[in-house]
Write a structure and sequence with these properties.
By secondary structure, the chain is mostly helical. It has one domain (about 1-230). It is about 70% helix and about 0% strand. It contains eight helices and no strands. It has helices spanning about 1-30, 40-45, 70-75, 75-95, 115-145, 150-170, 180-200, 200-230. The protein is globular and about 60 Å long.
């Protein structure tokens, strides 16, 4: 009986991963039909295959199934948290700390509706390499050490390190206050995502980032493109 449960869980995770890979493939193809847009390359889509070997390790690492009941009934929670982080970015970075007028789309925005595909796929790409691969490996290793007695330490060390990755990769330049805000906000969001990854699974972490991208990259992009730039 346990093997049937594991098999069903793995099958569900594989189907979800395959669907997201297909979405990324559609994004890569869509981008080739446009000009002057940021592309998701076929090489980047191929890199996402590196996440597949981690799927059988999810349960061994003590991680929940991706379509678990907690996520199905409470997926609005990480989505709402992501929307809050994204709304803060729009208010603080997009308006309060910005001194130049929007005479063109900034590089972190893309034309709509292509932005839905690019940032939906981009969120998946980030979560595979920021959460799925490193945290699964760390938590699996933690389950093997001393019978899993120190697994929570493995998780929190991994959570802190992965939460630092995105802030350290940022190169925010601009008025005073921009860099400290960007670093603190990014760290807080990534740490929250790591907590959701352990509590409710990969899709919860992905959904939180989707909520952020929905506000910061997609809806804000629509505002700049169609309201401030008049569709240019």
């Amino acid at each position: 009986m346990p093997s049937l449960t594991v098999s069903r869980t793995l099958r569900q995770n594989l189907l979800v991963y395959a669907a997201l890979l297909l979405f990324c493939g559609i994004t890569a193809l869509y981008g080739t039909q446009l000009t002057a847009v940021r592309l998701l390359t076929w090489g980047e889509v191929a890199l996402l295959l590196l996440g597949l070997p981690l799927l059988p390790l999810q349960e061994r690492a003590g991680l929940p199934a991706w379509l678990n009941r907690s996520f199905r009934t409470g997926c609005w929670q990480p989505l709402l948290i992501g929307v809050i982080f994204g709304s803060l970015d729009v208010a603080i970075i997009g308006f309060l700390l910005r001194s130049e007028p929007y005479d063109r789309q900034p590089p972190f925005l893309q034309p709509f509706p292509y932005s839905i595909f690019l940032y939906g796929s981009g969120a998946f790409f980030v979560e595979v390499f920021y959460r799925l691969i490193p945290l699964t490996l760390l938590m699996w290793a933690g389950s093997l050490v001393a019978g899993g007695r120190y697994a929570h330490w493995f998780f929190w060390i991994g959570a802190a390190l992965t939460a630092l990755r995105e802030p350290l990769e940022q190169s925010a330049t601009g008025p005073a206050g921009l860099l400290p805000y960007a670093l603190l906000s990014s760290f807080a969001m990534n740490l929250t995502q790591a907590w959701y990854f352990r509590r409710a699974g990969f899709l919860a972490s992905y959904t939180l980032r989707l909520g952020h991208y929905l506000c910061w990259h997609i809806l804000f992009g629509v505002w700049v493109e169609y309201v401030l730039l008049g569709g240019r």
